[in-house]
Amino acid sequence: MIPDDAKPRLPRGVRLREDKVRERWVLLAPERIVKVNPIAVEILKLCDGSRSLGEIVAGLAARFNADPARVGADVRALLASLAEKRMAEL
Amino acid sequence: MTVAPPEGLLAELTHRCPLACPYCSNPVNLDAPAAEMSTDEWKRIFSEAAALGVLHLHLSGGEPCSRRDLAELTAHAVKVGLYTNLITSGVGLTRDLFERLVAAGLDHVQLSIQGADARQADEIGGYKGGYAKKREVAAWVTAEGLPLTVNAVIHRGNVEDAPRMVDLAVELGARRVEIAHTQYYGWALKNRAKLMPTRVETDRAFAAVEAARERYRGTVVIDHVAPDYHAKYPKACMSGWGRQTLNVTPSGKVLPCHSAEIIPGLEFWNARERPLAEIWRRSPAFQAFRGDDWMQEPCRSCERKAIDFGGCRCQAMALLGDAAACDPICTKSPHHALVLEIAAADSAGPVEGFAPRRYAREPA
């Protein structure tokens, strides 16, 4: 499990950007275009290497008035799947 | 029919290339330097591509580093919001140019390797010192923190080393490796009888690379391009004709795929003369095999037609002389036996004596 003090970030060459033509957000990586849902966009915007996973989860749970355990599970699942594809660093 | 916007554009900036790989899949007739588009023409095309919905821009060739304006073109592509991928042999990429590309905002470098060691790689690429140069370029890329993809083409001369190419990619610090069995188009089709591995060699190499996938999970992403002639189903070529990507040649011709010119009767429009959006939506070449109205049986009623789109039009053309036929790679094709015969016959001969491709020696 990804620890609370991990400071996730998107590595060089992975870009989160708005795809205005298709009205959605995408992660652009080498030979990959990953559609990103609105919740994941909010998570990934916080993954800049300066915040710990614990801070990210606490911030999102407070902002969306959600259960921190649930938010934590969602954030970890997203980051683990991206890390396996070398699209996030922990 | 509503046409969804393309996601990727392959810009063949030039056909010039210092290497001589026998499996080159570029067209047999190459564009001469004098026919290449200007810096401003390419910039306009990149702007139009971004507005049309293109996300990934592949800067390719030939060897894109042969273009003196490569950094300027990259900077423009980044400015208009495109994700920039440099597809290079590394030969011709100087330290100065690399630094200018980084400053321009280049996102990703895709580096070809021809073999797992210097002797083999330089022999196949036909360029002495090429392997050492590639290692140097790989080190620049990873030291900079840019993502590196290593791209290796597999054929009879190196099929035993396919898993070693994955190891080499990891050693070079690649985040992604593409192990691509040779696709027989263009120059590679001419050399097919020298390049085709046997069924046994192919199966062994394929299994070894798949085994590496588990070993390197989380370290390197392996993209494996299957050996066509030994496959059960055809590849979903270009993810469907005119569905996701377009290809612009050095002289501005816009193609649905880079070998599409082998199909007779297709009318290609040129980005020098018309807006890219109009070409994408309306050009006869793109419309020719969009959707499934063009399909014959067994494709027309096939449950896989939305998965592999009937396979590859150029392969149907090259092997059957009918671009609208089911790709004979497919085991459902009535002509599939032909593919097996070719694979068996071509893999039986000696490996020596393939025709190296040399840009300068070919007629313009």
The total count of helices of chain A amounts to 3
Q: How many beta-strand elements of chain A?
A: 3
Assembly of the depicted chains: heterodimer
Uncertain stretches of chain A: none
Main β-sheet, spatial strand arrangement of chain B? 7-6-5-4-3-2-1-8-9
Strand content of chain A: 15-25%
**Structure class of chain B:** alpha/beta
Strands ordered across the widest β-sheet of chain A: 1-2-3
Query: By helix and strand content of chain A, what is the structural category?
Result: alpha+beta
Indicate the mean pLDDT of chain A.
Answer: 95
Give a verbal description of the structure.
- The complex is a heterodimer of chains A (90) and B (364).
- Chain A starts with 14 loop residues before the first strand and ends in a 6-residue tail after the last helix.
- Chain A has helices at residues 38-46, 53-63, 68-84; strands at 15-19, 24-29, 32-36.
- Chain A is of the alpha+beta class and 90 residues long.
- A 3-stranded antiparallel beta sheet of chain A has the order 1-2-3.
- Chain A is built from 3 helices and 3 strands; from the N terminus they run E-E-E-H-H-H.
- At the A-B interface, strand 1 and strand 2 of A face loops of B.
